[in-house]
Amino acid sequence: MDFTVSSAELLKGLLDVSKAIPAKSVLPILENFLFNVNEQSLTLTASDQDLTLMTTVPVSCDEPGAIAVPAHQILDLMKTIPDQPVRINTSSDSTFECKWSSGNSSLPYFPAEDYPEIHGVQDGAQKISFKAEDIAAGISGTIYATSDDEMRPAMNGILFDINPGAATLVASDSHKLICYSTKDVQTSITASFILHRKPAAALRAILDKDVETVDCMFDENTAVFTFGATTMTSRLIIGKYPKYRDVIPQNNSNILKIDRELLLSTVRRVAVCANKASNRIKFDLAQGQVEITAEDLGFSTSAYEKIVCDYSGENISIGFKSSFLIDILSNMTCQTLMIKFADARRAALIVPSEEEESSEKICGILMPIMV
């Protein structure tokens, strides 16, 4: 194997696929990148067997070939080399050389044949195309609401609920539920799959701003996302996602309309004095105002703040876990939002105001706690 490549382009490719390198693996070969070079391009592969990332980098090739390269060593080396052509060639049966303008290094490699085969989707897989900005925004807006409960694996990922011309991304930990909807999807199918939060986070991280479309093919076990020169293959979570639409409130008639940043900063201030175990804060809602309070009797701390706002409805006293509310408010991007209440015992619906362009795209549902 003998080829020349831009060090900057190689580093970017390595960084993109490195998100699939496992910290520890029962298969030591997976702690390596797979380099596969042909006449025009170098294909970089990294995998932990549940998540596989592949991308291609243009090269000038003198001799094609394939080797497995230690991930941390080649990454650390490329981070230190300024942008310039780098020549890589196998110098013996066990090492390869990396040469740049002022020096060179010799690193070990392993046979490409030892790298496990990567399996994609089966024949008859479904296909859908997203706008890259929509899938990135959908993952960013929902991933924080996934659960860590290994006893409920379906909740450890994001549900992709697909209908003709539309898709909804859903995440929930049973205390809060977030839905992100987009109607700009190229598909005529009705289907769904659950993508684990790790590959979802990797997908969001490596989507370049110049990527316009993400194509996805999926079957019962696997999803393959393709964009630009990169392909992500992920094993899906097998299981049945709860019927999330059944828990979205439809008739909450008590409505608080408020500036999102104002409410977020107020909740953060008041929550400093909340009980550290419960993180409970209380909303006392009355016509035209909301009072937010917190206290920790064990440490004799308390906080109170009143906000003049647009509230119409019955007087309500309702409690929330402050950390959950801060999560939702921090991950929404609208300027003004509405919180719709039924009473102190039922879930509150959090949505952008009707004036916001994204008002139909995202909604949050937060369960109350006892006051």
List the uncertain runs.
none
Across the major sheet, the strand order is 10-6-2-3-4-19-18-17-11-15
The main pleated sheet reads as: 10 strands, antiparallel
Distance between the termini: 68 Å
Structural class, judged by helices and strands? alpha+beta
Mean pLDDT: 93
Strand coverage percent? 35-45%
The rounded Rg comes to 25 Å
Helix percentage:
10-25%
The number of E-state strands comes to 28
Count of helical stretches: 6
C-alpha geometry? elongated
Word description of this protein:
This protein is of the alpha+beta class and 371 residues long. 17% of the residues lie in helices and 44% in strands. The chain is built from 6 helices and 28 strands. It has helices at 7-17, 71-80, 132-142, 197-206, 260-271, 322-331; strands at 2-6, 32-37, 41-47, 51-58, 60-63, 65-70, 85-90, 95-100, 103-108, 110-111, 126-131, 157-163, 166-172, 176-182, 185-186, 191-196, 213-218, 222-227, 230-235, 254-259, 280-286, 289-296, 301-308, 310-312, 316-321, 336-341, 348-352, 362-366. The strands form 4 sheets. The chain has a 10-stranded antiparallel β-sheet. Helix 1 runs antiparallel to helix 2, helix 3 packs across helix 4 (197-206) and helix 5 (260-271) packs antiparallel against helix 6. The longest helix has 12 residues, at 260-271. The model has no long low-confidence stretch (mean pLDDT 93).
Task: Itemize the secondary structure elements and their pairings.
Layout: E1 2-6, H1 7-17, E2 32-37, E3 41-47, E4 51-58, E5 60-63, E6 65-70, H2 71-80, E7 85-90, E8 95-100, E9 103-108, E10 110-111, E11 126-131, H3 132-142, E12 157-163, E13 166-172, E14 176-182, E15 185-186, E16 191-196, H4 197-206, E17 213-218, E18 222-227, E19 230-235, E20 254-259, H5 260-271, E21 280-286, E22 289-296, E23 301-308, E24 310-312, E25 316-321, H6 322-331, E26 336-341, E27 348-352, E28 362-366
Antiparallel strand pairs: 1-5, 1-7, 2-3, 2-6, 3-4, 4-19, 6-10, 7-8, 8-9, 11-15, 11-17, 12-13, 12-16, 13-14, 14-28, 17-18, 18-19, 20-24, 20-26, 21-22, 21-25, 22-23, 26-27, 27-28
Helix pairs in contact: 1-2, 3-4, 5-6
